[in-house]
Amino acid sequence: MRKQIAAANWKMNLTFHQGEKLLDNILKADIKMNPHQYTVFAVPFPYLLMTRSEVEEEANYYVAAQNCHHKKNGAYTGEVSAEMLHSLAVSYCIVGHSERREYFGETNAMLAEKINLCLQYFVTPIFCCGEPLAIRESGTQNQFVEAQLKESLFHLPAETMKDIVIAYEPIWAIGTGKTATTQQAQEMHAFIRSKLAGQYGPQLSEEISILYGGSVKANNAGELFACPDVDGGLVGGASLQADDFIQIMRALK
Ligand code: PGA
Asked: What are 194-204's pLDDT values in tens digits?
């Protein structure tokens, strides 16, 4: 079975102590992941080491960064490289979150560079794609998402493509409380998988996990994750409450 992943994206929330307490409360619930199930905590950079040491004894719990820089190293004050993440044994990195695209001007071409560096340093990218509301309303969301995949991922050879996790996050659903319907999520996930199959063959396309993100909550995770092409979630707001995130972890297939 494909990896099923509950990924928490804390964004720029929580103090260090609040973050520690949240992790403690989640770990106290002692939820055992099945071998194909993973929990990932994408935390602010200063909390990476603390989070890694909190989860390192737990099977299939991992730490992620929320971003990395698109250049390898050098005079980029304030930035963090994929190599640095690797040196801290960080397993995953979110790449191309819509907030980074929108507020920090990240382009599909820059994201391709980030993807390459993450893979070079054995950090698994969680590549985010998804359309804004106007595109959804015009009915051109498939073309929009296809361009994101082509321009940031489809240069990869199959050997490295298999290490990618994709997160489909319709921008109109992020932080708005407006979730995509299960039908909208399943349709787009199946479309993404069909594009992966076209580029890399059906077998590889079946191995790639595609997470849904955008107002995943304790009360809708079960039905979203039950969709055949939805392999878990990338969760913002609801990952900041232990009880909510625990229920989302429990909802994994
Ligand atoms: P949300 O955020 O769950 O608060 O909508 C999801 C995300 O941006 O990853």
From this structure: 999 999 999 99
Model-wide pTM > 0.90: yes
Determine whether 169 is an active site residue: yes
- 19 C-alpha to ligand 1 centroid (Å): 17
Q: What are the CA-CA distances from residue 43 to residues 4, 11, 48, 156 (Å)?
A: 20, 7, 6, 27
Q: Give the Cα separation of 247 and 187 in Å (integer).
A: 25
Topology of the domain covering 4-250: TIM Barrel (3.20.20)
Atom of ligand 1 minimally distant from the CA of 174: 5
Residue with tokens 């820059």: 110
Q: From the candidates 69, 97, 106, 146, give the one annotated as an active-site residue.
A: 97
Q: How confident is the model at residue 39 (pLDDT cuts 50, 70, 90)?
A: very high
Q: Output the CA torsion 53→45→180→140 (10° steps).
A: -140
Question: How would you class 19 by CB atoms within 10 Å of its CB: exposed for 0-12, middle for 13-18, buried for 19 or more?
Answer: buried
Q: Where are the domains of the chain?
A: 4-250
